[in-house]
Design brief:
Layout (H helix, E strand, L loop, with lengths): L4 E6 L8 H10 L3 E6 L9 H8 L15 H8 L2 E7 L1 H9 L5 H8 L4 E5 L3 H5 L1 H12 L3 E2 L3 E4 L5 E5 L3 H14 L12 E7 L3 E2 L5 E2 L6 H12 L3 E7 L9 E6 L2 H12 L4 E4 L6 E3 L20 E3 L3 H7 L7 E8 L3 H12 L3 E6 L10 E8 L4 E8 H18 L1
C-alpha cells in the first residue's frame, strides 16, 4: 500500500530546527513526507538537512522543477499538510490567499486537512491582526494549534513557543486518522474543559491520600479535542505526562484546587468533561510535621471529611443551559447499575462508566467503557486505545452541541 503523503511546511522562525524532530517522527511512523521550507526557513535549517531526513528533494519556489508543476501536484497528492513553525507572516499570507512561493501556492491547491503550529513572540501572537488571521483560518476548516507558554527567543518568556514536536505529531496522527478534508472540524469554535489525573489530599508534608489515576484518559480527551478544532483547557491533577499540543494546562494538586480551576474555566465553556479521579474525602486536618512511628504506640485514627462534589455542582449551576457536562465513574462491581444511579444523582448529561481494578483502566494505554446518556441510549465502547473512547465521547458531545 502507498504510504500516506504528508507535506511539512516550515516557515522562517527560530523554531524551524524543532521541525526536524517532527519530520523524523512522521517518517519513522510510515509516512511519506515532502518538506516545503520558505526561503527564510533555510536561513535556520539548510536544504540538505531536509532532503536527507525526508528522502525528497527540497524546493522553495514555483519556478523550480517547473515541468512537474509542483505547486499543483504536491497539493493534489497530499493527505495532510502541516506547517510547523507557522510564523505570523505565514499565517497572514495563508489567511489572505497570498501565494509568493511554493509553500503558499501549495496551500491554495491542497484539499487535504491543514494544520498550523504557530510559533512567535507573545506580542505578535496576541496582536489583533494575528488573532483575526487565526480566526479566519479556523473558520475555513484549518486546525490552528494554540502555541505553548515558556522560554522564547532570548530572555523572553510567554505564550508563543512551538509545542513539543512529539505532541504536534499526535495532532497530525489524529487529524490524518479522521480524514476530515474540506470539512470544518466538528468542535471548531468550541471551548472544552477537561479534568485529568488524580487528586492528592495531604496527611502531612510527606504523605497524602490519593488514587491510582495516571491522567492518560483525560490527556487523550485533550489531544483528540485539539485535533477536532476545540480550544482546550486541561486541568491536570498530579499527572506526570507531557502537555498536549494546543491545550492550556492548569496544574492542580487537591480536590479543592481542582474545583476552583474547573469552575473558573467552565464559566465560558461549551462542554466540561470530568475525567479526573477526585478524592471523595480528605483528612480533617493536615499536620505541619511528619507523623512519626513510635515503638509500642498505635497511630491515632485519621478523621476524614467530604470533599466538594464538583460534578454535581457543575451540573446544577451551568453558566448556560446548553453547556454539556460529562462525568466518569470508576466502578469495581455492579458497574451499570451503579453508573445509572450516579448519572441520575449527579444530573450530568453523559456518564462514562468503566470497571477498574485487576490491571484495568488505571495507568494503561487502553480502556473500555459504557457511555450512559441522560434521556438517551447506552453506548458500549469495546476495549481499545483510550483515544478511541475519547473520540466516541466527543462524537456524542459534538452531536448534542450541534442541536442545542
Amino acid at each position: 500500500m502507498d504510504k500516506p503523503k504528508i507535506v511539512l511546511g516550515v516557515s522562517g522562525g527560530i523554531a524551524a530546527y524543532k521541525a526536524c524532530e517532527l519530520l523524523r517522527r512522521l517518517t519513522e511512523s510510515g509516512h511519506d513526507v515532502r518538506v516545503l521550507p520558505t526561503s527564510n526557513a533555510l536561513r535556520f535549517v539548510g536544504a540538505a538537512t531536509w532532503a536527507a531526513l525526508s528522502g525528497h528533494p527540497v524546493d522553495t519556489e514555483v519556478f523550480e522543477s517547473v515541468h512537474e508543476v509542483p505547486h499543483v501536484r504536491i497539493g493534489q497528492q497530499a493527505d495532510l499538510l502541516v506547517i510547523a513553525p507557522a510564523t505570523a507572516d505565514l499565517l497572514a499570507k495563508a489567511a489572505h490567499g497570498r501565494a509568493d512561493d511554493l509553500l503558499t501556492n501549495t496551500l491554495l491547491t491542497v484539499r487535504a486537512p491543514v494544520i498550523f503550529a504557530p510559533a512567535m513572540h507573545t506580542e505578535m501572537w496576541e496582536h489583533p491582526a494575528t488573532q483575526e488571521n487565526v480566526a479566519t483560518l479556523r473558520r475555513r476548516g484549518a486546525v490552528v494549534i494554540e502555541p505553548a507558554s515558556g522560554r522564547l527567543t532570548g530572555a523572553d518568556t510567554g505564550k508563543g513557543r512551538l509545542p513539543d514536536p512529539a505532541e504536534i505529531f499526535e495532532v497530525c496522527r489524529r487529524v490524518l486518522a479522521r480524514g476530515t478534508a474540506g470539512a470544518v472540524p466538528d468542535l471548531a469554535g468550541r471551548h472544552v474543559v477537561i479534568s485529568a489525573g488524580g487528586t492528592r489530599e495531604p496527611l502531612d508534608p510527606v504523605r497524602y491520600l490519593g488514587n491510582r489515576s495516571s491522567g492518560k484518559q483525560g490527556y487523550a480527551l485533550a489531544r483528540t479535542a485539539v485535533a477536532r478544532g476545540a480550544r482546550v483547557t486541561l486541568v491536570a491533577a498530579n499527572a506526570a505526562l507531557p502537555d498536549p499540543a494546543g491545550a492550556e494546562v492548569v496544574p492542580v494538586g487537591t480536590a479543592r484546587e481542582l474545583r476552583e480551576a474547573v469552575l473558573k474555566a467552565a464559566a465560558n465553556a461549551d462542554a466540561v468533561v470530568m475525567a479526573a479521579a477526585v478524592a471523595d474525602f480528605r483528612p480533617s486536618r493536615e499536620v505541619d510535621s511528619k507523623i512519626k512511628k513510635r515503638d509500642g504506640v498505635e497511630p491515632e485514627p485519621i478523621a476524614l471529611v467530604r470533599n466538594p462534589d464538583i460534578l454535581a455542582e457543575l451540573s446544577a449551576h451551568r453558566p448556560a443551559p446548553a453547556q454539556i457536562v460529562v462525568g466518569f465513574a470508576a466502578e469495581t462491581d455492579d458497574v451499570l447499575a451503579n453508573g445509572r444511579a450516579k448519572l441520575a444523582r449527579k444530573g450530568c448529561d453523559l456518564l462514562v462508566v468503566n470497571q477498574v481494578g485487576g490491571g484495568r483502566a488505571f495507568g494503561t494505554e487502553e480502556n473500555e467503557a459504557v457511555i450512559l446518556e441522560s434521556g438517551g441510549p447506552e453506548t458500549p465502547v469495546p476495549h481499545g486505545p483510550k483515544e478511541t473512547l475519547a473520540d466516541r465521547i466527543w462524537d456524542i458531545v459534538a452531536g448534542r452541541l450541534s442541536t442545542a
